Amino acid sequence: MGRAWLSLGSNVDAEHWLAVAVAELRARFGPLAISPVYRSAAVGFDGPDFLNLAVGLDSDLDPQALNDWLHALEDRHGRVRGGERYASRTLDVDIVLYDDLVLSGEGHLELPRGELRHAFVLKPMADIAPGLRHPVDGRTMAELWAAFPAASEPLAVDEACTRSIVPDFFQ
Questions:
Q1: Per-residue pLDDT at 51 exceeds 70
Q2: 3-state SS, residue 53
Q3: Which residue numbers are catalytic?
Q4: Where are the domains of the chain?
């Protein structure tokens, strides 16, 4: 059993696809730690804003098997592969951290995930796992977020989507 930390994002009917993904993750893995949903501009291309959140879960799958399961989840919900790397998508689910493992691309899996350098991944992670340490850098998610130049990548909580996916979040 390992603790996995995931980043979920969508900019095509995002509220629907994120809710579906969270429901499937909950059905497969049980209780989840779920961050608020954040709205941010598309990175790397001109497109609709993305909605992003982070999820923590306990997995009985090793990192590669979990990554394969997540790819199948994306595929079931309209993810198109083989196009441009930076493009609109129904669902993007990535493993950001898995326990304290460090992997450098074996099987197309990089841990910790490089996107942790972006606000749309780091801020939700800091929300649900502030004391979690980066396995290479050594700083906690809260420390990494405190040092992040937040104005460089503005994001804001999308309250409506957060209420939809995590109904008790604001209580």
A1: yes
A2: strand
A3: 79, 89, 92, 94
A4: 2-165
Q: Tens of pLDDT along 73-126? A: 988 877 665 666 666 788 999 999 999 999 987 667 899 998 999 999 999 999
Judged against a pLDDT cut of 70, whether residue 58 lies above it is answered with yes
C-alpha span between 116 and 125 (Å, rounded): 9
Dist CA 111 CA 120 (whole Å): 17
Beta bridge partner(s), residue 56: 5, 33
Q: What is the pLDDT of residue 80?
A: 65
Under DSSP, is residue 52 helix (H, G, I), strand (E, B) or coil?
strand
Percent of the chain with pLDDT over 90: 74
Q: Residues 124, 54: contact at Cβ < 8 Å?
A: yes
How far apart CA 43 and CA 46 sit, in angstroms, is 8
Q: Kindly calculate the radius of gyration of the chain based on its CA atoms and give it in whole angstroms.
A: 15
Predicted local distance difference test score (pLDDT) of residue 44: 76
Q: Rounded to an integer, what distance in angstroms lies between the CA atom of residue 40 and that of residue 52? A: 8
Q: What does 87-141 look like in DSSP terms, one character per residue?
A: ---S-EEEEEEETT--EESGGG-EES-GGGGSHHHHHHHHHH-TTPBPTTT--BH
Please state the CATH superfamily assignment of the domain spanning residues 2-165 in this structure.
Answer: 7,8-Dihydro-6-hydroxymethylpterin-pyrophosphokinase HPPK (3.30.70.560)
